[in-house]
């Protein structure tokens, strides 16, 4: 069961696609968002959730104060689930909240996206080729503002992402099989 951990939609159960996704565990999301809350980055933030799956990361950010969220998911079934979850979270929102779902590939979205975004999540399938992840990261640089944060979730067995010029990692944290990297503009 995937749910919103905290904020105005805390405990709301999210729908998940029947197959083809690997939702971030509640434990990892809770740890990640505790650190984000401590940074004060969420209130009023513009959030981009790439490889959104159920939309759990972007919608958790919305529940904790983000004002705009874009969920990018290519798989038709997962994009449909994102739309249902976005509607449920938006309905509960006590503040103006915009959640858009882009049902297209991440690279296609990035090639035409307009930023800046305050917070960007990349939670690709663990088997995503490293070259594709590197291309995604390189495309993000132009979407970053001076205080933006990029959070990349990978398998703990994956190599460190290839960081593009214009982005530098600031920390990483392992949670069992999951490794979370944080990066900022250079």
TrEMBL record:
Its EC number is 2.1.1.171. The keyword Methyltransferase applies. CDD domains: AdoMet_MTases (cd02440). One of its GO terms (molecular function) is 16S rRNA (guanine(966)-N(2))-methyltransferase activity. Pfam families: Cons_hypoth95. Keywords: Methyltransferase, Transferase. PANTHER family: METHYLTRANSFERASE (PTHR43542:SF1). This is 16S rRNA (Guanine(966)-N(2))-methyltransferase RsmD.
